[in-house]
From TrEMBL:
Name of the protein in its database record: Cytochrome P450
PANTHER family tied to this protein: BIOTIN BIOSYNTHESIS CYTOCHROME P450, P450, PUTATIVE (EUROFUNG)-RELATED
Record SUPFAM superfamilies: Cytochrome P450
Keywords, comma-separated and alphabetical: Heme, Iron, Metal-binding, Monooxygenase, Oxidoreductase
Pfam families: p450
Family from the record: Belongs to the cytochrome P450 family.
Residues annotated as transmembrane: none
Domain of life (superkingdom): Bacteria
Naturally occurring in which organism (per UniProt): Nocardioides oceani
CDD domains the record matches: CYP164-like (cd20625)
Keyword Amino-acid biosynthesis applies: no
Keyword Iron tagged: yes
């Protein structure tokens, strides 16, 4: 009896401590441990390890390591993963039914796996946590994706083109006011970030007043794709994901009460052929992914494109004389400086890749940015050439069943966004002080100061 009274007040404290320990374990298994293992492998010369370390310490794309990995064979076996920078092999992996999307660190078999599963029970919903489309496989993936595909078809996107042109023109007009008197303006803040968020927010029915909040959530959560985050950063990212989810729950509730014409209202009301709706978690995950993917990547396409065109005046001149080349120019920007550098897969059944056996449980990293520079596919691959005939053969939107749902939208926004700014400000000059974003898988600019004339 005495014992029972003594332990009773301790139980809630023990529970609280256990709950507080889960994020620390998630971080340890998902970031600290892989970081030290990879660091050690890199010091021993492992190419994949060197690649990860290089990408986490510098904003330059490690093109030489891509080339070295490709030169070592169609699929390179590193100490802890398989990795490929060969374009046909990247496509093969991404289409292979024996691999599934995503990489689970610390959730395999054994005691570490059990610990990982325990810690992941309270993981906030994010782009890489189920039921996000990015890590869901058929049949659930097929069912969920079908409900949103229609809205992003090439035809549906063509209808959005005029509205996107208007948004771009409005943003460029306010840019002009900001740049009056020869003052430099930050093109990322005032243009590249605002164009995609305005378009996707209109598609999803997010009110104007909420857009800055959504942008802030996106920026804070973007490093969630990266490996080896510091504890502070990891906590910030998880905090942002929790706030984003709470905001989505409220927003979806509002659409339930007062539906509009927008995609989110359609998703809330959608039923599959058997009359089944998305579950609440599926709805939140899909809406969150479409919203965040809708602007976190396209902002990079615009900023990478502006910088590339600025640095290649001959290509800019060509586009001025032959504006029909703009769609191909956007493909070339996507090829040479892709907004998403790589993606990961896990083998679920013993399989073969490029004729080589790859066992169940293996992790395969497909280097999209490396495949885009495969010299067997792209002649003189490190050259930026807007006339390149096969520029669109890149894999910047991935391939296979997870091929980017928003590719048509992103391409249209890239064409409108880059052509409009280039034609309106033909003498635009980048000012000193441009900085790259410190995310590692997503690649773009944090700031791009420029003089408009
Ligand atoms: C230049 C801009 C963009 C790039 C480079 C890009 C890139 C990608 C990549 C590489 C993937 C697949 C990742 C994997 O295979 O693991 C993907 C998936 C996805 N993207 Fe995009 N994306 C862009 C714009 C957009 C836009 C505007 C939307 C908004 C609708 C969007 C929505 C999605 C969704 C929902 C998925 C998940 C598809 C699935 O797993 O079935 N993306 N994107």
């Amino acid at each position: 009896m005495l014992l029972r009274t003594a332990t009773r007040p301790l139980a809630p404290r023990a529970d609280a401590l256990r709950e507080a320990a889960r994020p620390a374990v998630r971080w340890g298994l998902g970031h600290a441990l892989p970081k030290s293992v990879i660091g050690a492998a890199a010091r021993r010369g492992d190419l994949h390890g060197r690649l990860i370390v290089a990408s986490s310490t510098s904003s330059d794309v490690p093109v030489d390591l891509f080339d070295a990995i490709r030169a070592s064979g169609p699929i390179h076996r590193s100490r802890y993963a398989y990795v490929t920078a060969t374009l046909p092999v990247v496509r093969e992996v991404l289409a292979n039914p024996d691999v599934r999307a995503g990489v689970d660190l610390g959730t395999g078999a054994g005691p570490l796996g059990r610990l990982g599963r325990w810690a992941h029970r309270t993981t906030p919903m994010g782009p890489l946590t189920p039921p996000s489309l990015l890590v869901t496989e058929p049949p659930d993936h097929t069912r969920m994706r079908k409900l949103v595909t229609r809205v992003f078809s090439v035809k549906a996107v063509q209808r959005l083109r005029d509205r996107t042109e208007e948004i771009a023109e409005d943003l460029l007009t306010s840019l002009e006011q900001q740049g009056r008197g020869g003052r430099p303006v930050d093109l990322v803040e005032a243009y590249c970030a605002l164009l995609p968020v305005t378009v996707i927010a209109e598609i999803l029915g997010v009110p104007d007043s909420e857009r800055q909040k959504v942008l802030d959530f996106g920026t804070a959560a973007a490093p969630s794709l990266d490996l080896g985050l510091s504890w502070r950063r990891f906590r910030r990212v998880e905090g942002a994901l929790v706030s984003f989810e709470a905001w989505l729950v409220d927003h979806i509730d509002a659409k339930r009460r007062d539906p509009g014409e927008d995609l989110l209202s359609q998703m809330v009301a959608a039923r599959d052929d058997d009359g089944v709706a998305l579950t609440d978690r599926e709805l939140i995950a899909t809406a969150g992914l479409v919203l965040a993917a809708g602007f976190e990547t396209t902002v990079n396409l615009l900023s990478n494109g502006i910088a590339l065109l600025h640095d290649h005046p001959d290509q800019r001149a060509l586009l001025r004389d032959e504006p029909d080349r703009w769609p191909n120019a956007v493909e070339e920007v996507l090829r040479i400086d892709p907004p998403v550098l790589l993606t990961g897969r896990t083998v679920v059944r013993d399989t073969e890749v490029a004729g080589m056996p790859v066992p169940r449980g293996a992790v395969v990293t497909t280097l999209l940015a490396g495949a885009n520079r495969d010299p067997e596919v792209f002649a003189d691959p490190h050259r930026f050439d807007v006339t390149r005939e096969n520029a669109a053969d890149h894999v910047s939107f991935s391939a296979g069943r997870h091929f980017c749902l928003g590719a048509a939208l992103a391409r249209m926004e890239g064409q409108v966004g880059l052509q409009r700014i280039t034609e309106r400000y033909p003498d635009l000059r980048l000012a000193p002080g441009a900085t790259r974003r410190d995310t590692r898988i997503l690649r773009g600019f944090e700031t791009l100061p420029a003089y408009l004339s």
